[in-house]
Each structure stands twice: as structure tokens, then as C-alpha cells.
Amino acid sequence: MKNGRKQVKVTKRGTTPIDGIIGNKIRARRLEMHFSQQQLADALGVSFQQVQKYEKGVNRVGVGRLQQMAQFLETDIRYLMGDLAGDRKKPPTVSRFAKFMATKDGADIVEAMIRIESPALRKSVIQLARTLGGAEANA
Fold first, then answer.
1. What is the pTM of this model?
2. How many CB atoms within 10 Å of residue 14?
3. Collapsing DSSP states into helix, strand and coil, what is residue 81?
């Protein structure tokens, strides 16, 4: 602790766990909008490798760049930043759910479920997924 404040762990490259959370949100929104890393990179004027680094939290995203991303992804900075103003005593983490939703499979499963209009059929698909995943269904 320095000056009564808890220090946040910073990597050699100057990133923190928050950069990973923001990157995860960027990736999730990009997949939701069906954009490739290359399309986002072209809109930002950077390489797709740079977008990869942003999404993995390896490189920090500046506020100006975050605003560009939000505009291209048709959202706002608040969405991309998530709930980072929460409990300051506890370091931010990315849940398993958020990590999955930031994958192509996560986006695909949600889109497929949205297209199923029948509530009964949706419940059947959920039950099947639980059975295949080895989890008990708590209906």
C-alpha cells in the first residue's frame, strides 16, 4: 500500500486486469455484430494483430481509440467498459460466462436460441445442452 491506497498490478507492458475485461467486451460486441478483426482494424486504421492485442488485453486501449471502436460497433464506451466502477476492494475478473460469450460459439448459440420461437423447444434445447454438458437440469 502506498499513501493508504492499494496498488493495482501492472504488467511490463503497462496493462492491468481491466484491459483484459475491456478487450473481452470488445471481442463479444465485434462477434455480435458479425465483424472480423480485419474489418474492425480497417475502421480503426490499425492492423488486425493490433485488434487481437486489444481483445486479449495485451495492449491498452486509449480512450480515443475506445470511442472509435464504440462508434464502429454501434455502442457506447460504457458498454465496452462494463461495470468497472464496482467494488474497488476486489480486483475485477472476467466470469466464465463472459469469456464464453466473447467467443464465436457463444455468439452463435445465442443467435440460434433467439431464432427458436417456441418456448417449449427452447427449453428442450437447454435440457439437451445440460445433459451433454453433464449438468443436472434444474427446471
1. 0.66
2. 9
3. helix
- Cβ proximity of 131 and 123 under 8 Å: no
50 membership: H or E segment, kind and range: helix 48-56
Place of cell 437440469: 137
* Farthest-apart Cα atoms in the chain, separation: 58
Lookup: cell for 52: 487481437
Q: Which residues pair with 5 in a beta bridge?
A: 2
The helix-helix angle for 37-44 and 63-72 (nearest 10°) equals 120
Distance (Å, whole) CA 130 – CA 133: 5
Name 2's bridge partners: 5
For residue range 33-79, list pLDDT tens digits in order: 999 999 999 999 999 999 999 999 999 999 999 999 999 999 989 88
Angstrom distance (rounded) from CA 18 to CA 84: 8
- Count the Cβ atoms, other than its own, within 10 Å of residue 43: 15
List beta partners, residue 111: none
- What's the pLDDT at 67? 95
- % the chain with pLDDT above 70: 78
